[in-house]
């Protein structure tokens, strides 16, 4: 399977907060309490960064603040980068690696800032980068970039803290009530849904050779872009997807949503893309945002009610011209489709494959040989709430079919649901939704080829 991937890849830099070091920093920057009383929600100084971190640690909450001053970004790099754990970040970056490791033939990613360091986090198996008219694997590209790369690093600093951590602020000891993370993000290109010129040219010239495209990154758009609004960026992306479809009408286009900072952007991206793409994937939180915007109650969706999730997915599809939606939650994965020709058994097989790959990844922290992953997943238990959700949804179907899993007709749409598999002691939980979606996407391409 040959697959295009766009748009967002970055570097995640994971830092475990050193509370003694934090206390020393707070002593030097004595304006932190004032900053905390009137938080900016963004980072233009070291004091802004410290205020955001301390607020999250004090409350046990998570947040992501954007870095607007490159000098602060340089300070964070000098202070934390060498001791951090770095990994691939960004939905598209993660999904492209999943596709490559699970057996895709050729994976072509859009990379906003193709540095030597960024290239080092891409899979060595099937990923090929278009650059100056040629395709390079990640290893070869690293050497080329080392001698002439001029891009900037796009780094999301993820500051992890745990329950019971303590630090001192203005003479008062503060204890962290629960584990969470504060993310300080410098990513001026992905926030604009940047399209690399080499990728743009290659994707248009070779779209007819591709079997599918998986696209994400719209959730990173901001309402206050300096060089145009978010609608312009979404519209430019839509034009690119339409151009691909003109080259190959049966190119399967999957869009993966994310956690939007703005309901306006979420609504515009969803409604604009729905009539053109083949499927949109999201988790229950992202579905709840779209449901609320479209005057539906988000509470049962957030409560993981499978009937409410199916109903919301069907309403959104019907109202916005989308035919297929995939909703992945911790306990189950649910698909709705308006296509009579979709084979529910193939959909169940693909969903089961995605669930197993994600479970094995959670337990091992890596994507290995496909057979090894499936063998490992066989020993991981199915989610009990997921099985209960499947039974509940089956009872509400107007017509239940004889499949290897739960499938049937609900509100005139074909609906399938598969329980997830739960790793009791996960090594990694980052990117599980992306892993499920990418694995399902790949397996469906294979089964339908």
TrEMBL record:
GO biological process terms, semicolon-separated: glycolytic process
Keywords of this entry: Cytoplasm, Glycolysis, Kinase, Magnesium, Metal-binding, Transferase
PROSITE patterns in alphabetical order: ADPK
Molecular function as annotated in GO: kinase activity; metal ion binding; phosphotransferase activity, alcohol group as acceptor
Record SUPFAM superfamilies: Ribokinase-like
InterPro entries, per database record: ADP_PFK/GK, Ribokinase-like
Keyword Transmembrane helix: no
Superkingdom, taxonomy of origin: Archaea
Name of the protein described by the UniProt record: ADP-dependent glucokinase
Originating organism: Methanolobus profundi
